[in-house]
Amino acid sequence: MPPKERKMFKKNTYNSKYSILLIIFFSTICSAQNIVEKEYKDVLWPVAQRIHEYYFEELSPDTLMQAAARGLFAAMDPASDYEVNTDNMPKAIHSRKQLANRFTTLMQIAKQLDNNALYKTPADTLIRFGVAGMMQVLDPYSVYLEKRNLENFNIQTQGKYGGLGFRIQVVYPDSAIAVWSLLHSDTPAARAGVMSGDLILAIDGESTKEMDSGDAADLMRGEPGTPVNLTIRRAGQDNPLEISVIREEVQMSSIAAQKLFLDKTGYVKLDRFQRDCSLELRESLLTLQKNGMERIILDLRGNGGGFLNEAVEIADLFLPADQLVVYTAGRAFKDTTKYNTSNPALFPTEPLIILVNSQSASASEIVAGAIQDWDRGLVLGSTTVGKGSVQQVIPIDEHSELKLTMAAWHTPSGRSIDKRMRKDSTLVSEPDAEFRTLLLNRIVRGGGGISPDVSGEIRKGNRLWWQLNGFADLNNQFFYYSRQYRLNFPEIDEEFRSNRETLREFRSFAKSRNFDYISEAQAHIEELTEMAEEDEYKELEETIDVLIEKIDKVEERHWEENEELILWRLTYAILEKSFGVKSAEAFNANEDKQIKQARDLIANDAEYEKWFSIEEIGLDLKNDEEDQDLPNKTQ
Q1: For this structure, is 358 an active site residue?
Q2: In the predicted structure, residue 412 carries a pLDDT above the cut 90
Q3: How far from 514 is each of 235, 501, 508, 509, CA to CA, in Å?
Q4: Fewer CB within 10 Å of terminal CB in the chain, N or C?
């Protein structure tokens, strides 16, 4: 824009009714068709209204308007800028009226951007940037859901969808979509001949190279009864395979593993709180009880939650009738909502341990908190996420919904364990109020998640472990080795366990794939080597050679230090690719350090009871971070 034009535009805008300054690179040709107003009325304005009315913290109309304006301008070129001085804008008596006034002004800003900006942004994109701006001032669990994310949310909570029935993950260097694991042996993909470990090269003829897992999942999901054609590369096959799979409504089980140990301790791993998961857990425990179960370990590690009512139903299995499980309170609700057990406990006296970790959230925390507050059992592991808030889904239009935090939930002792965060992960507040358990009067703390009674032992790997798993570059050596293992050793069965010979073969395999472990010391040596190529540092070459020899010995020790962990991972990956997830989880139930710790504790009556006499829960917790596998996407 010529300087004169820019100055005139600034002046005229600034002297309008409100104190608003806009600096926009604009075109002299305005769009004849302005659809931004329709998008604003259909999407941005309804979202703002719902946030203002229902969000569990009160946000002023000025805060919401400023946030939406920041979002709008985030969609523009870097030279465009704005300033909104809401202090000089009219104040309405009623907050709703003031919100309408502020967002009427915001609509005018959006229309100016849509009509005048030189670098055109589509109207729907512009408005969604405005929505994104408002989302930034909310907590991490309030999200605006459109087509893909809405489908993913429904999958996680309802447990069924029109798809193929396997988990996927991007892998390199192939830049392909890996079939990480089949959900079970009767999925449409399994029946069509897809195998765990396959690499998907194309979906309906569209190459998956450089495709992310979300886009791949979108292509493979669809209406039940419709086909999708997959081009697959399989270990041991020279040429790609073409497999057609008919989409079906796939039901995912909530139970990842169940086992009755010889000492009569029953173990169940619950993956998600989807619809009817309480019935699945009930049947699993009744089966174990019928076979002689005397103690219970319920594994909620990695369980991110789901339906609140399912958490209440699961607590109902262990607590007497008419006991408080959780209550919610929020700004938009006139009364506190209490959720009590409704039936006599099916398992009222069996010793009980709940396993949790830093990925246990929401409904998992409700169950763990209720069991802990009623002194019904012990919680073992590490501190949970601290997602002590309640989200409800509000329809916006036929293509989108707003999942909005509308209340905070509290455990029976009265504590809120919500770790109050913003979208940028900054901690808003960290209350540390003291509460008491309801039977034994033990001290528990509010804020920051559920602290376990017993700190869990963990598997901990060094830099070598992270590189083998491909956490940084998605080049997972365990995946590539395990996908071809059954081809090389067709005689293996579900009793397979890796050993040092397996480890030797694995190291040879990784080396053949150009895997080169770079320790932290080696990374610094490479920098020195580059410097030594310069004349003034030539004298360093001999010293560097000595250092490299010593570092090689240190790196070999890293392999030795990680041997137990690597052997465990090899066994799990090979069983998963050869026989399915349940086989791998059955193995893990015998090998997992925290499951072993829980079994030893729960089988020792004196040791188990001792933990209930400790006055304050969580005083001696370890702060070690847990090892995590890469996430994968279900389709």
Answers
A1: no
A2: yes
A3: 18, 20, 10, 9
A4: N
